[in-house]
Design a protein that fits this description.
It contains 14 helices and 48 strands. The protein has 944 residues and is mainly beta. A hairpin with a 4-residue loop joins β21 and β22.
């Protein structure tokens, strides 16, 4: 059973921490008047405060008030620091709107996007959130998300350069064009900084591993007609391995072993067996063979359960390992440099020039765990899971795990990444006729990423363990070398039969824009504001995987990948109007036309949006918005030259054809075995089209207290997705048998268009001695999904209190709750109206984030909390409890120029909610972090 860390007792300490702050604040409230000042533009909930005319994300028209018809969440650099975060991405992961599932460092170490940092607003997918840097598009991450689609990386933004982050949740294509479907995240970098400030921070996790250090230098200079702002940052941390966490270092941590077996079995093995799962089908290893591997394996008698009867079947002996899972990293090791420069020059004739430069250079390493083989390998075909062995005179299956010692140690197991990105922009701006502001901008952003990983060469490993193939047609025939199977390799032998695979990828975006904005003329209720924009964008990517992993070559053992590349040009024009109807009522209207030039049938898109703002009182705003949106077909979904993947889904047809249901076939190798799936780009994809609307209010209750509540509704048609192997096999089984997984009547006839399409995607070959043919290939690939629809509530509160005796207090609270989630995979499928409550939906239904800060004289402190809502338990019989995480920091200004702060993140060392039925490694939902408590100290020194 798993070993859990006791940590600190949250019930006592958390109450004490929060009570201490609230009690002192409450006591001060009886004697003091709330403060009326707003110390920052950027807060998690904004007052309708006059801000002097700035552009806020969601419009190109300058506003004099922070709040508008669409809610915009703003996180300042000061807020990022006081809440305990080191990186921009760390802060974004706590956004209440960021409730969707994404791959992270825990669940993609061996996958396709192990070094990217995506954001998934509203659960609509990472590629549907647009990242802007100072209002300009960032280049896509060069490696596709999960090997399938492009996305933007939020992990290469230097936190030292950030002034604030503005998040608009909802469709914004009428302003920004394609991809702004779920929302827009605009990272606004510092300008007009004066002086120099250096910040040094270092820390570690209290559970083991994860040492990190961060050095930031930000500064600026200015003269009569020029200014320059600069920032430099270095961040480094060490990788964390699963074996450093005792609740996930072994398969014996499984809290819910197969009930009929009663105990956990090894996760990995050196085994040799006849296929079929019959009793005593394992060929026992020689005496003492398992002991040759330095304690990594032990002799074990494996068992399984029979389908239907669920009787325990003794399979026989092999060499088993419980701790193989511990050799994967759960956090990457990084060494990152980033820099930023922004400069302006005023020509004294009403024209100002500006330029910006942002660079990023990173070296990262991670481990996907140990390698394994499961049979011979044939170039161009891949691994063979069943062969006829002439020495044993039988069809055989096998597994052979390679230990870290055989490979050459943990360092030899690392995949390594080198990433470089550069964003350069130049612009001119000025005023026309003393009433219109204009801006012309050109820029280019590039992102290069290289990856290396060690991997066995299929032919060489086959020669070593199996020798030459002994036939040319039919079931492959080999004679396994039993002595080599049970003898550890030396690192030199491993290197002789392996190679270092090298991946190269790059992406780029060239863009230019011209904007004119101002007041056209006066209406009875005020000036008519407008903005006009012309945009040009050229973007592309190029992905070159090592030839050995391509599906048409398949020389690397058990590993596939893809090449891809293409480009796309876009031309766009847009208009916006801010229309005062009454002194208290204002409307906004925006429209945009996008013209596309690429190989798809997508030619153009027209989007529009409208909003209303009604202020019956200076302190009260009612607002509503509606907009249409679109997303051009994802470039990798279009240009993918062909990719493949291995998985072990349930062969639903084989299970149903044997007279069982899916539950009865679980944990049985006859029905769950390795299958290969392929996918290729589809230039015939159409654009995704959507619409979103929202309504809400913002109320400044007092000078120090404001709150907002907003309803959102986002609908997306023709969303592109890849059909999963499970979806295809479940429906293939239904089409062939007329039954669902639970043996209920299937909805489609065998000769329907749906069934003809689904069955054509599955290739089967005869399996000697077995009732049903085995799956050898599943043709997946992108399709235009019919419907995604989400709706819910966002709420926020901001409270400030200033006292002379007890100091200043500040509380920020945000909450998002999903009320509705619907989806329809294909037009032939019924609309699933209860997806929010579906047991297989692991998007968080609700999220909360909040903080309480205190400052008095030279001291300051902050308590930050984030809450993840409940989720279905793994056995789909109920729900697991919500998850809370608390951060705490305490700082002191020790001199006029120096400040010291101590941080404790995840104060109570919480890893994940308990789920006693979670029987799949790592035995908890991978959205939760396994890092645990982190402690750090920081020194800030201001040279002004």
């Amino acid at each position: 059973m798993p070993h859990h860390h006791s940590g600190l007792r949250p019930s006592r300490l958390s109450r004490a921490l929060v009570a201490a702050i609230f009690v002192s604040a409450a006591g001060a409230a009886f004697a003091q008047t709330p403060a009326a000042t707003v110390d920052e533009l950027s807060t998690s909930n904004k007052k309708t405060t006059d801000i002097g005319g700035v552009v806020v994300t969601g419009s190109r028209i300058k506003r004099t008030q922070i709040e508008g018809p669409s809610p915009v969440t703003v996180i300042s650099s000061a807020q990022i620091q006081r809440e305990g975060f080191v990186t921009v991405f760390d802060a974004l992961t706590t956004l209440t709107q960021n409730g969707g599932v994404t791959q992270n460092e825990l669940n993609s170490a061996g996958g396709f996007t192990p070094n990217g940092s995506p954001v998934n607003l509203r659960g609509l997918g990472p590629g549907r959130t647009l990242l802007l840097i100072n209002g300009r598009r960032a280049a896509d991450y060069p490696f596709p998300y999960n090997g399938q689609s492009n996305f933007q990386n939020f992990g290469n933004i230097p936190s030292a350069a950030v002034d604030r982050i503005e998040i608009l949740s909802g469709g914004a294509s009428a302003i920004y064009g394609s991809d702004a479907v779920a929302g827009v995240i605009n990272v606004v970098l510092k300008t007009n900084f004066s002086g120099d400030k250096v910040t040094v921070r270092g820390g570690t996790s209290t559970t083991g591993g994860g040492d990190f250090g961060n050095l930031q230098w930000v500064g600026g200079r200015s003269g009569d007609n020029w200014s320059v702002t600069y920032a430099l940052e270095y961040f480094a941390d060490e990788p964390v391995f699963a074996f450093q966490r005792d609740f996930m270092d072994s398969t014996d941590d499984n809290p819910h072993p197969v009930p009929e077996l009663g105990v956990n079995q090894p996760s990995a093995a050196i085994r040799l067996n006849r296929p079929g799962g019959a009793a005593n089908s394992y060929i026992a290893p020689p005496a003492g063979a398992c002991d040759r591997f330095g304690g990594e394996f032990e002799r074990y008698n494996f068992r399984t359960v029979a389908a239907g009867t669920r009787a325990v079947v003794n399979l026989g002996a092999g060499c088993g390992s419980w701790k193989d899972v511990g050799y994967q990293t759960i956090a990457n090791g990084n060494s990152d440099w980033s820099g930023y420069l922004y400069a302006t020059y005023d020509f004294a004739n009403g024209i100002e020039a500006w330029t910006s430069l942002q660079g990023f250079y990173s070296k990262s390493k991670l481990s996907g765990g140990t390698e394994a083989i499961s049979g011979p390998h044939i170039d161009g075909t891949g691994r063979v899971t069943t062969w006829f062995d002439t020495g044993l005179n039988a069809n055989m299956n096998m597994q052979r795990i390679f230990t870290p010692q055989e490979v050459g140690g943990l360092d030899a197991m690392y995949q390594r990444f080198t990433e470089k990105s550069l964003d350069v922009a130049f612009g001119l701006r000025g005023t026309l006729a003393d009433r219109f502001d204009w801006d012309v901008t050109v820029g280019r952003a590039e992102y290069h990423a290289d990856r290396t990983r060690p991997r066995l060469d299929g032919s060489k490993v086959t020669d070593w363990f199996f020798g030459p193939r002994l036939n040319t047609t039919g079931t492959p025939r080999y004679k396994i070398n039993l002595d080599r199977l049970y003898t550890p390799l030396t690192p030199e032998q491993y290197r002789s039969m392996s190679t270092i695979l090298k991946y190269q990828s790059k992406s780029w975006v060239n863009q230019g824009s011209a904007t004119l904005s101002g007041d056209l003329f006066d209406l009875p209720a005020g000036p008519l504001g407008f903005a006009a924009v012309l945009d040009f964008t050229s973007q592309g990517y190029d992905l070159q995987s090592p030839p050995a992993i391509l599906p048409t070559v398949m020389e690397a053992y058990g590993l596939t990948g893809t090449n891809g590349g293409g480009d796309r040009d876009r031309y766009a024009a847009g208009l916006e109007f801010s229309i005062p109807i009454l002194p208290s009522l204002k409307a906004s209207l925006a429209g945009r036309f996008d013209k596309y030039d690429d190989i798809t049938a997508v030619d153009d898109a027209k989007t529009w949006g409208a909003g209303l703002e009604w202020r019956p009182l200076d302190s009260l705003l009612f607002r509503a918005n509606y907009s249409t949106s679109f997303k051009a077909p994802d470039m990798h979904f279009v240009f993918n030259e062909g990719s493949g993947s291995f998985s072990s889904p349930l062969d639903t047809y084989r299970c149903l054809n044997s007279g069982f249901n899916a539950t009865s076939c679980a944990n049985n190798v006859i029905y769950n075995y390795s299958m290969f799936a392929t996918s290729k780009g589809e230039p015939g994809l159409t654009e995704e089209t959507g619409e979103s609307w929202g309504a809400g209010l913002v109320w400044d209750v007092t000078d120090g207290l404001s709150m907002s509540v907003d309803y959102y509704d986002i609908k997306l048609d023709d969303a592109v997705t890849s059909l999963s192997s499970t979806y295809i096999l479940d429906n293939e089984g239904g089409c062939r048998t007329g039954l669902t997984r639970t043996r209920q009547p299937f909805q489609f006839a065998a000769d329907s268009a749906f069934c003809r399409e689904i069955t054509s995607r599955v290739t089967r070959v005869a399996a000697p001695g077995e009732l049903t043919d085995r799956v050898t290939n599943i043709r997946s690939g992108p399709v235009n999904q019919s419907l995604l629809h989400v709706a819910g509530l966002d709420a926020a509160m901001n409270w400030r209190l200033s006292t002379q005796r007890f100091g200043d207090y500040r509380m920020e609270l945000g909450w998002t709750h999903t009320l509705k989630s619907e989806r329809q995979l294909l037009a032939t499928d019924p609309v699933q109206k209860d997806w929010r409550d579906d047991p297989s939906n692991f998007d968080f239904r609700s999220r909360v984030r909040g903080s309480v800060s205190w400052q008095k004289d030279a001291w300051n402190a902050t308590v930050f909390m984030t809450r993840y809502g409940s989720l279905p338990n793994w056995q789909e019989t109920g729900r697991i409890a919500p998850y809370f995480q608390w951060n705490l920091n305490l700082g002191k200004q020790i001199t006029d120029k120096a400040k010291v702060t101590v941080f404790v993140n995840n104060v109570f060392n919480k890893f994940h909610p308990d789920d006693d039925g979670y029987d799949t490694y790592p035995y908890f939902y991978r959205a939760y972090s396994p890092i645990g408590r982190e402690i750090s100290a920081q020194l800030e020194y201001n040279f002004n």
